[in-house]
Amino acid sequence: MTPRRVPSTTEALLQLAQRMPKAELHLHIEGSLEPELAFRLAERNGVRLNYPSVEALRAAYAFKNLQEFLDIYYTGMSVLLKEEDFYDLTWAYLLRVHQDNVVHVEMFFDPQAHLKRGIPLGVQISGIRRALSDGKKQLGISSRLILSFLRHLSEESAFETLELAQPFLDQLDGFGLDSSEIGHPPEKFARVFAKCREGGFRITAHAGEEGPPAYVHQALDVLQVDRIDHGNHSLEDAALVQRLADEGKILTVCPLSNLKLCVVKSMAQHPILTMLEQGLRATVNSDDPAYFGGYVNDNYRALIEHLPLTREHLYDLAHNAFDGAWVSAEEKAHHLNELNRAFARA
Ligand code: HPA
Ligand code: ZN
Question: Could you tell me the residue range of the domain that residue 102 belongs to?
């Protein structure tokens, strides 16, 4: 069989996307649980998965919307019981993205989903943190950890979680808001995020993934977020686009996630180039890579293969991620210097 001919410019862009150093700012660590690891942990912990095989589990990853995904995502977590399970999960992700030249990651975890199953917060954080520390030492990947509140639960439950987190605040870098968006607007969590901000923490929130532009407005006005996760529906509101552009807000966009959850109809219709053209500071992220068909480089590949992406777009997307990372000015300068070197060599 003759290999498919790929225009050399596309090939060059794919290679550059692979080679350039990258920061990932939107990653749910529980969403990196590959079926193979899920079965291994299920066996180790004596947990029964409702699927006969890895293939059957993977075949169930077909979603019409966010909720259909979340139902499977929360079920998949049932295999995570012990500190070493959280370690193995996080370490597997870090090893995988090291191949993609990810050098910095800011990851979410969903403690309420584990507390509900009786897993203490200290067990969760210790396992994740130990892997992040090994990731820094052995792979050179720096990281931040973001505690994400589940928005389908009450603000009271979020407050209880924040209370439980008090002994571990030095191991957390920020707070987020995820899960079922429609019907659970950011303003529902106004007081708990005010408390997080008082503690000096950074804030980010999923907004405008399925929800309306009003939810993005609320994330900005009420929660006073530092970043917006997804933000796709912002494009329906010209004044909001102008505001996001003026404020230089980073949007953590997740192309394969958007396709899998039917936020976009096809990759060719993904709005990431429109976002950049309208002055929005978009970045490329994987969200839940085990469920959505790929890690960061797969997301870049999908964009390159389906949209008229240029070298400049690639640079801007990678640059925005380092610029939006919650790291010191020195670290930022170091990463941007490395990014410039990768482009100078290309
Ligand atoms: N959206 C909302 N909540 C989530 C997601 C997502 O894409 N992934 C994990 N929790
Ligand atoms: Zn997400």
Answer: 10-345
CATH, residue 182? 3.20.20.140
24 ligand 1 Cβ < 6 A: no
Q: By the 8 A CB rule, do 223 and 186 touch?
A: yes
Mutate-to-test residue for ligand 1 from 26, 179, 251, 263, highest number of ligand atoms within 8 A of CB: 179
* Cβ of 286 below 6 Å from ligand 1: no
In a domain, 335, yes or no: yes
CA 309 to ligand 1 center in whole angstroms: 26
Over residues 53-97, the pLDDT tens digits come to 999 999 999 999 999 999 999 999 999 999 999 999 999 999 999
pTM for this predicted structure: 0.97
What are the residue ranges in the chain where pLDDT is below 50?
Answer: 1-6
Q: How far, in Å, CA of 249 to CA of 342, rounded?
A: 25
Cα gap 164→155, rounded to integer Å: 14
Look at residue 2 and tell me if it is in a domain: no
Give residue-wise pLDDT tens across range 119-153: 999 999 999 999 999 999 999 999 999 999 999 99
Active site residues: 209
Taking the centre of ligand 1 as the mean of its atom positions, its distance from the CA of residue 11, in whole angstroms, is 31
Q: Is the CB of 288 under 6 A from ligand 1?
A: yes
How many domains does the structure of the chain reveal? 1
